[in-house]
Every structure is written in C-alpha cells, then in structure tokens.
Backbone:
C-alpha cells in the first residue's frame, strides 16, 4: 500500500491539469449557464501572503463547486501592477519598476500555481502593460468628452512620504491609506472624475445589492456618500451687496441664529485679512489643522470675529460673522448659520466666546430657559420666539419655513453630499500617463485616440525628489494634436484605482485590440456572480468600480448597472505577534528561544493580531506548502473559520488537517477489495448498511447546504469529517469482520466515491489521485456534484420515550409509523419497564406514535 505522498501527488496533478488546459474557459458551452467567480486581483509585491491564500482558496472552491454543478465557470486572475512600491524599489535598488514588477509577477505566479488554483491563465492581465493601460487613457478621453473629467485648483490631500496627492477615499483617519503617514492639505491644480454625478444612483443601487452584499459594506458606502436634504439660505452682508449662502438641515431654527461662521478657507477671508492683519496667524493655524480633527467631537473649537455683520433674511436681525475651525470648506457652502441653543458644536463655540444663545424650540408643555441650558436642546418640540411660526411642531415648521424661503427667493431646497469628486491624478511615474498635452497656442488638449497608448518612457532616473516624469525631456516634449505645434505633455499619471475599476471587464475579452472589451463578452459574464475580497476596499475600489461600471454602461459598452452581484468580504488572517519591550522590536514566533526574546532573553508580549510585515507575525505560505502540501494549507484556511470571519493561524490546525487527509487516504486506498462498483439496490441493503447510506446522504445534504448558505465551508468540511469517522467504524466493524450483506460492498464503494467527490473542491490534488485509484478516469473537476435522496437522509426508525406516570423510565428504537397496539405491547415488554409495573395496576397506556408512550399506574 502506498503512503500519502502529497508532494508527488500534487506535482503530478498540477502538471496534468495544465497539459489538459482543464481550466481554460471556452466562452460558451452549450446548455450551460455562465458563472463568473472573481477574487480581487493582487498587487505584485513579490510574495503571496496568507491573506492571499485565504482569498484565492475561497474563490477556487466556489469555482470548482460551480463547475461540478454544471456551470460554465470563468475564473481569471491578473495583476494590479502599477503603484508606488515598484517605484520605491527602483529608487532603493536601482532596478527599473517594470523589471521589478515582472519578476515579482513571475514569482507570485509560481506560488499561486503551487496551490493548485483553477485559474484560466490564458486570460491573465497586468495593468502596467501597454495593451491594458491604453484603455485607461481611452476611457479618460471619452469621459472628458462627456464632461466627466475636469481639472481644478482646490485644497487636496498630500502625502509627504508618498510624494503625491491622494483622493479623499484614500485618507483614513487623517493618514495615507498606503503608508500611514499624516496627510496635509495643499492647494493644487488636479484632475477629477465626476463621481458626484452618480451619487444618487450609487445610493439607489443599494436596493438591488442588498441581497448579495454584506450590509456593513453598504452602510459604509451610504455614510461615505452622505446624502443630506436641506435648505440653502442667503444671508446678505450688512455693508455690501454680497450674499453668504449657508446650508442647513434645520431651517426651523432660523429665528435662533445668533451668529454666522465661515470656514477659514472661505474666499471672503482673504479680503477680511487685508482689513485685519492681526488675525492672520489664527486663521493660518486653523487652515493647517487637518480636516478630520477639525470635525471631530470633543476637539477644541476655535474661531475669530471678522468685524463684519450679516442680515438674517427672516427677521432682518444683525448677526455677527465669525470664522471657525469647525466649518469645513468643502461641505455645503462652507458657511453655517449657528444656532447654539439647538446644535452641540454651536453651543460649545458660543459658550467659549460668550455669544448670544436664543432658544426657539421647547419640548411640549415646558419652557426652556437660557440660563438653565447646559447643552444644546436637539430633540423635537414646539417653536417659540419665531413670530408667525410660534406654536408649530418643529418638523412642520421646517417644511413651512423652507417653503417660505423658496417663495421669497431668499434661498432654495438643496441636497448635499459628503462624497466629493474622485481626484485621479498622481505625481508619480509608475502609473498610466494622463493623455493630455498643453500647447503654447491651443492650450490644454486631449490626445488623439490614434496616438494611444501614450507610453511611459523607459530612460528615467529614479531619485527621491519629485515626479521622475518631469525629468524626461523625451516624454515631456509633445506635439499638439490640434495644430501640430510644440506642446508639453502632462506628467501626472492616473491613480491605480482607475486601473482596478474595470479590470473584471477586460477579463471577459483580454486579448481584444480594437476596444477595451466587446459588449457581447462583457454582457455574457457581468455582473460578476461572486466577488471576493477585503473589507478595506468598501469605499475605495468597491465604490470606484461601481461608478466606472455605470459610466461605461452610459457609454453603451455594457448593459448591467452593477459590476458585482454578490460580494463576500473575507475576514483577516491573524497570527501571534511577539513584542520585546526592551528592544522595542517584534519577533517572529520561529525566532524566539524558549518563548523568549532571542536577543535579550526577556519575556516577550504575545498578542494575536492581523498578520503584517510591521508586526513580523506572518507565516510563509510557500514554507507551509513544502512541509504539509497545498491541500493541507487549503483545508486549514477553509476549516478554521467561516470565510467572513477572522482566521487565527495555528500550526496545530495544520497538523490536524494533514492527519485528516492521511486518514482519508488510508480509508480509500487500503483494502480496495471492499469497494463494490454496482449501483445500490436499496431494497437489499441491511440495517447497518442503511445507517451508512443515511449518513452519506445526510452529509451530502449538509455539505451542499453549507456551501449554498454563504459558503460556510467550515461546516461543510466538519460534516465530511464526521462521515469519515462513521465510515472508519463501518470498515472495521462490518467490512473487515465480514458482517456485511449482499449490498455491503456497493454501499461502501458508493460512499467512498461520493466522499472523494465532495472533498474535491477543497483538496483537489489528493481527491484526483484517489479518484483514479478507484479505477475512475480523469479528474474529479469534470464529475458531477453528488446528489442526495431526501428520503434516504431520514431515519426509518424513531426513538420513543417511555414514561411511567410522567417520568421518563426508558427509551426504545422502533420502526417509524408502527401501529399503536404493537407499540404498547413492545413498551410493556421492556425489561426495565416490567420491573416498574410488576404487581402494579395499569390504569391506562397512552401512545403518541413516533413520540411517546405514557403508562399510568396506581
Ligand atoms: C443650522 C443648524 C441648527 C444646524 C441646528 C444643525 C442643527 P449634515 O446632516 O451632515 O448634512 N453644516 C453645514 N455646512 C457645514 C460645514 N461646511 N461644516 C460644518 N458644518 C456644516 O449636517 C448639516 C448641518 O451641519 C447644517 O445644519 C449645519 O448646521 C452644519 F439646530 O444649520 B445646521
Ligand atoms: Zn503615503
């Protein structure tokens, strides 16, 4: 008997699959429905990590499972291969980003192949290649023609360590999403995509997505888009014919306005500074605070009086105009009517600067007093001090006042969004060149389509100062597409999130040369049936691609409204981190000496945290594959937790997984003489054998349902483990002892085959080997997923409780649906029961079939 030699087996099958082009998708297969499963494509950093292993294993199981269920499955992979790390490596190691990237791709491809993923490598794409980024440029120009791209000078986020601007979505808690560095504000001219044009549709689309997307992702997008209905009201400057419009969601509080606040960046501020240079420093300090902390609760509010007044258009009151740090320049109008009595932030500000507080809403039947007010009253109530609106419920007053304002033309109802346009230009080399030139005569011009792709120049010096493209004369010197004269090329490149916003469409038509992708192909496969990736992309990639998909739809390039029908966000992979307080360093578990710091011998602090380079707590997938095999690595990541939850790495789990596969191996390979090959004749199956048939069908049911129910592979695998245990007992007790009947071997053979089939999506190498050892040909990938017979999952016996005077005294296992008289007789014949009823008078026997027998005695 052969032992389970995983490396030999895995090698052999991977080669076979490749030779047979098993995973190559033929665009169409007669009679089969299409199914597109996709994992977020990797950034080629150099090596895969456990997060990749988890992500791609989940996708692979889905792809294999759907294939066995009769779908024509598309399962592609590629590389999100533009981006900063390549450029930083170039500066550090003097290796060109292209070279660095391609060699990383090579290595990671080799690693992914080790895991036996069912990718159609024929469709592989890399976004840094000309045949891909050409279409980014094409999309950019088309969007410009439709008014969806513009260039504008504004306050933007700047990361000093990445040396480039960032989109709002890429700033997390005031820090750069990529490098965690503090982000500052700069006034720069930049390129934007008009995602705000689609804000409403991006929100409405949630209705459709609710069925297939995690609620938390939709909530994050909803909050990010932040739609808010309100009123814009004009407050006129006292001494000038200039309006300062404010955005408010609480028009009902307008009689309570005691001052107005504008953002320190507000246009008027520069004019005020000329009059009052003494406040310059305060203003500059406010401007330098970052946006996040300016808005945050509990942060000190600061402000300064401008010396000017505005007029409240409803009661003509004179209202002082202030500049305050808590007003943001890019929300609403950048100006706020302050109502300290009913807004927390205004209240805090008014208290600090001793500004008037005026109550205009009181709870029903109560009158609030300013002297007693300890915080803003923000609940509902009845209007007071509001002239003709007095006595009105505030909700009604809100509508009435807003209507009045519109009628009197002192303002209008508006909608505001937190979402801002997507800043897509970057001051870096390793990205798609923006296809624009600046002509001395004609000004800014889009490139001609026939000139695409505008290629990145290769003779570049990578230094730490500034955008390397600026230093390439060859690149910068261009010809104006309009007049043919001398022009200068735009040196900004595109945000790499542009690349990843439509790559799933390119997979449907990866080799097409004349267009980004043909509509018929895109429509055949999208929306992607199942998308899998990290939750960290909730308001970056997942929002941008929804936007771009809609744009492409409006170009007539694709029919669907959404890119991803179902989304699974897998949990993080956690591992133990070990921190030495003395050395202020993290050590990998494998470096510790007797659990202590290898350098100073002190005890380390161990925590379970997300695997990361900075915590030095990663495990190397390649190492695991070499020691345990790809199947074990796959099994462990699938079994340790349901996909959406965190997965805690532990070596024991891996060992356990390997033990299970070894048991499986022996079960199938040892004593092949017991494996019957005929179809089961259920009528001839004896009682013990029937138990196994039942367990098998219950398992098929459980595994199928667990996969169908949000891909809960962990419960599916647990069920196969139970089955394996029961089969082991059957083998030892029934087969090896010769206690089997006419159908025994067939029952066994059937169970063995179906167990192998069921496990194949999870552990495809060992199952293909076992399948062939069962004298079956080819790969399990091409077999059909096993079906269960509902009737056979049910026991034909029931356990009845036997009670005497309501107390449980015994149980009995009998055939289902026996008649009452028979049950009664059997119950009374039980030895235990006999003992209780000896010499007693039986008054009554109540039989509830399939449930209970109650004997009433005196
Ligand atoms: C008067 C008022 C009275 C307000 C009241 C609230 C309560 P959302 O729901 O987020 O849209 N606001 C408007 N523009 C602002 C800006 N640029 N920076 C900071 N705050 C701004 O919030 C809308 C409310 O936030 C607006 O309604 C305004 O304050 C403030 F009892 O106006 B309110
Ligand atoms: Zn950065």
Residues:
């Amino acid at each position: 008997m052969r032992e389970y030699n995983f490396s030999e087996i895995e090698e052999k099958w991977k080669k076979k699959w490749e030779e047979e082009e098993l995973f190559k998708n033929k665009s169409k297969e007669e009679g089969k429905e299409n199914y597109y499963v996709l994992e977020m494509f990797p950034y080629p950093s150099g090596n895969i990590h456990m997060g990749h292993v988890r992500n791609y294993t989940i996708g692979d199981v889905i792809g294999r499972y759907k294939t066995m269920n009769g779908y024509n499955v598309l399962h592609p992979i590629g590389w999100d291969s533009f981006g900063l790390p390549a450029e930083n490596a170039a500066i550090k190691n003097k290796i060109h980003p292209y070279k660095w990237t391609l060699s990383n791709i090579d290595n990671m491809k080799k690693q992914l192949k080790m895991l036996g993923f069912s990718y159609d490598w024929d469709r592989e794409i890399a976004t840094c290649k000309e045949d891909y980024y050409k279409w980014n440029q094409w999309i950019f120009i088309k969007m410009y023609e439709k008014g969806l791209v513009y260039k504008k000078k504004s306050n933007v986020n700047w990361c000093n360590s990445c040396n480039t601007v960032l989109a709002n979505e890429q700033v997390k808690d005031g820090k750069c999403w990529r490098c965690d560095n503090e982000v500052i504000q700069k006034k720069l001219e930049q390129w934007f995509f008009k995602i705000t044009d689609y804000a409403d549709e991006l929100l409405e689309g949630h209705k459709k997505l609710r069925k297939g997307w995690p609620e938390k992702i939709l909530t994050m997008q909803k909050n990010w888009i932040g739609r808010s209905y309100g009123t814009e009201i004009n407050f006129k400057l006292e001494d000038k014919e200039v309006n300062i419009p404010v955005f408010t969601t609480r028009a009902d509080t307008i009689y309570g306005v005691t001052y107005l606040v504008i953002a320190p960046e507000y246009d008027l501020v520069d004019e005020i500074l000329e009059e009052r240079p003494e406040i310059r420093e305060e203003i500059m300090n406010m401007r330098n605070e970052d946006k996040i902390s300016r808005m945050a609760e509990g942060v000190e509010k600061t402000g300064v009086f401008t010396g000017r007044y505005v007029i409240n258009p409803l009661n003509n009151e004179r209202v002082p105009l202030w500049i305050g740090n808590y007003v943001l320049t890019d929300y609403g109008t950048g100006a706020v009517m302050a109502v300290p009595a009913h807004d927390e932030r205004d209240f805090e500000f008014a208290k600090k600067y001793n500004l008037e507080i005026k109550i205009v809403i009181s709870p029903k039947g109560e009158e609030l007093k300013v002297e007693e007010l300890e915080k803003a009253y923000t609940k509902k109530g009845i209007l007071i001090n509001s002239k003709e609106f007095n006595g009105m419920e505030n909700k009604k007053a809100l509508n009435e006042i807003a209507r009045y304002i519109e009628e009197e033309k002192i303002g209008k109802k508006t909608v505001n969004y937190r979402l801002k346009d997507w800043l897509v230009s970057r001051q870096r080399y390793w990205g798609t060149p923006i296809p624009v030139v600046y002509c001395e005569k004609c000004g800014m011009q889009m490139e001609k389509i026939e000139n695409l792709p505008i290629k990145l120049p290769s003779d570049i010096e990578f230094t730490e100062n500034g955008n390397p493209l600026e230093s390439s004369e060859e690149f910068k010197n261009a010809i104006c597409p309009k007049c043919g004269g001398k022009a200068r090329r735009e040196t900004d490149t595109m945000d790499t999130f542009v690349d990843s916003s439509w790559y799933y469409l390119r997979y449907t038509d990866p080799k097409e040369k004349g267009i980004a992708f043909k509509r018929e192909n895109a429509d055949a496969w999208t929306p992607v049936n199942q998308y899998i990736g990290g939750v960290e992309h909730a308001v970056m990639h997942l929002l941008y691609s929804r936007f771009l998909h809609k744009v492409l739809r409006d170009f007539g390039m694709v029919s669907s409204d959404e890119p991803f029908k179902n989304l699974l966000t897998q949990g993080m992979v956690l591992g133990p981190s070990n921190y030495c307080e003395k050395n202020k360093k993290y050590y990998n578990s494998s470096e510790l000496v007797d659990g202590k710091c290898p350098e100073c011998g002190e005890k380390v602090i161990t925590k379970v945290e997300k695997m990361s380079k900075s915590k030095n707590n990663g495990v190397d997938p390649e190492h695991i594959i070499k020691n345990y095999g790809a199947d074990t690595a796959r099994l462990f990541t699938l079994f340790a937790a349901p996909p959406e939850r965190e997965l805690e790495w532990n070596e024991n789990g891996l060992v356990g997984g390997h033990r299970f596969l070894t048991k499986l191996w022996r079960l199938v390979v040892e004593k092949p003489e017991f494996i019957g090959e005929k179809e089961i004749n259920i009528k001839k199956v004896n009682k013990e054998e029937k138990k196994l048939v039942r367990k098998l069908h219950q398992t098929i049911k459980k595994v199928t349902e667990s996969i169908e129910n949000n891909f809960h592979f962990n419960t599916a695998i647990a069920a196969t483990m139970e089955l394996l245990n029961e089969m082991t007992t059957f083998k030892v007790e029934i087969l090896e002892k010769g206690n089997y009947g006419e159908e025994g071997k067939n029952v066994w053979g059937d169970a063995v085959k179906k167990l192998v089939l069921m496990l194949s999506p999870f552990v495809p190498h060992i199952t293909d080997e076992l399948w062939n050892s069962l004298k079956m040909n080819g790969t399990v990938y091409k077999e059909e997923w096993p079906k269960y017979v509902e009737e056979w999952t049910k026991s034909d016996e029931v356990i009845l409780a036997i009670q005497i005077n309501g107390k449980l005294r015994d149980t009995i296992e009998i055939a289902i649906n026996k008649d009452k008289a028979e049950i009664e007789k059997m119950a009374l014949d039980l030895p235990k029961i006999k003992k209780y009823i000896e010499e007693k008078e039986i008054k009554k026997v109540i039989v509830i079939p399939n449930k209970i027998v109650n004997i009433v005695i005196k």
Observations:
- The first strand starts at residue 34 and ends at 39.
